[in-house]
Design goal:
There is one protein chain. It is globular and about 55 Å long. The protein has two domains: 155 residues, P-loop containing nucleotide triphosphate hydrolases (Rossmann fold, 3-Layer(aba) Sandwich); 64 residues, no CATH class. A six-stranded mixed sheet has the order 6-7-8-3-9-10, sandwiched between helices. By secondary structure, it is of the alpha/beta class. A hairpin with a 2-residue loop joins strand 9 and strand 10. 34% of the residues are buried. It binds adenosine-5'-diphosphate. The site of adenosine-5'-diphosphate (ADP) has 11 residues, from strand 2 and helix 1.
Length: 241
C-alpha cells in the first residue's frame, strides 16, 4: 500500500508537487497521468525515497525512507541506470544480494525468458540498446516481487512483445495483491487493467477517478484526460482575458 499525504516538493522556487495526497491499495493499478512537466516523475521519485519533500509517504505503513519500506518497494525509473561493468545476469545477482533473496535464479530466468533476454545474460549493461536496458531495469525492479511497484513511463522504448509481456505481468502482480503506481502517456495501453487514476496538472491533482466511477458514463481514461487537460487550458485562457 502506498499512502501519500500532503506531499509538497519544490525545486528552488518551482513548485513541482503541491500538497499531493492519494493512496494506492494492495491489488490496485493506479495510473498517474498528466502533461509533460505536471510533476509525475517528481512524486514517483519522492515515493521511491530519492528526493527530499515536505509531507509524509508511507509504504506498507512504514515511512518511505526506512529500510522496511525499501524492502517492499520496486522502482523502475524513466531512464534505466545500469552498471556498465556488470553483465545483465550480474545485475540479477546484485539485486538478489541487496534484498537477501533466496531461490531467485528460477525467477530471474523466467523474467529473462518472458522479456526475451535469455541469450544476452553475459552482455555488459553498456553493450545493450536503450530498449534492452529498459528491460533489465524492469527485471531488477521485479526480481524481489515487491509489494509496491513504481513505474515511471515503463512502456516507452519497449518492443511490442515486451509491452505485451509487461502488461500481462502487471495484471499478475495485481492479482497477487501488489500495489502498482504507473505514470504513462500511453493511456490506451493501460485501458484494459487500470483501477484508479490521478490526473496531474501543474503539480496538483486535477482529477481522480476509479474505474467503477466511470463505468456506464461513456468516459474512458483517454477522454477523461483530454476533458481535464483541455478544460484546464480553457480556464487559463479565460483567466488571462
Ligand atoms: P513530469 O514527470 O510530469 O513530466 P516532472 O516531475 O519531471 O514532470 O517535472 C515537474 C516540474 O519540475 C517541471 O517543471 C520540471 O521542469 C521541474 N523539474 C524536474 N526535475 C527538476 C530538477 N531536478 N531541478 C529543477 N527542476 C526540475
Amino acid at each position: 500500500m502506498i499512502e501519500v499525504k500532503n506531499v509538497t516538493k519544490k525545486y528552488g522556487k518551482l513548485l513541482a508537487n503541491d500538497s499531493l495526497s492519494f493512496t494506492v491499495r494492495p491489488g490496485e493499478i493506479s495510473i498517474l497521468a498528466g502533461p509533460n512537466g505536471a510533476g509525475k516523475s517528481t512524486i514517483i521519485k519522492s515515493i521511491a525515497g530519492l528526493l527530499r519533500f515536505q509531507g509524509e509517504i508511507l509504504i506498507c505503513g512504514k515511512k518511505n525512507k526506512s529500510l522496511e519500506a525499501k524492502r517492499n518497494l520496486g522502482y523502475i525509473p524513466e531512464l534505466p541506470a545500469l552498471y556498465d561493468m556488470l553483465t545483465i545476469w550480474e545485475h540479477m545477482e546484485f539485486i538478489a544480494r541487496a534484498y537477501s533473496l533466496e531461490n531467485w535464479k528460477e525467477r530471474a530466468e523466467n523474467l529473462f525468458r518472458r522479456l526475451e533476454l535469455d541469450d544476452k545474460k553475459n552482455k555488459l549493461g553498456s553493450e545493450l540498446s536503450k530498449g534492452m536496458q529498459q528491460k533489465i531495469s524492469i527485471c531488477c525492479g521485479l526480481l524481489p516481487s515487491p509489494k509496491v511497484l513504481l513505474f515511471d513511463e515503463p512502456l516507452v522504448g519497449l518492443d511490442p512483445h515486451a509491452i505485451k509481456e509487461l502488461k500481462n505481468m502487471l495484471v499478475e502482480y495485481k492479482q497477487q495483491g501488489t500495489a502498482v503506481l504507473l505514470s504513462t502517456h500511453m493511456l490506451d495501453s493501460v485501458a484494459e487493467f487500470w483501477d484508479s487514476t490521478n490526473i496531474m496538472i501543474k503539480g496538483k491533482i486535477a482529477a481522480s477517478r476509479s474505474r467503477e466511477e466511470i463505468i456506464g458514463t461513456g468516459e474512458d481514461l483517454e477522454k477523461l484526460f483530454f476533458e481535464i487537460t483541455e478544460n484546464n487550458k480553457n480556464t487559463k485562457e479565460e483567466v488571462k482575458e
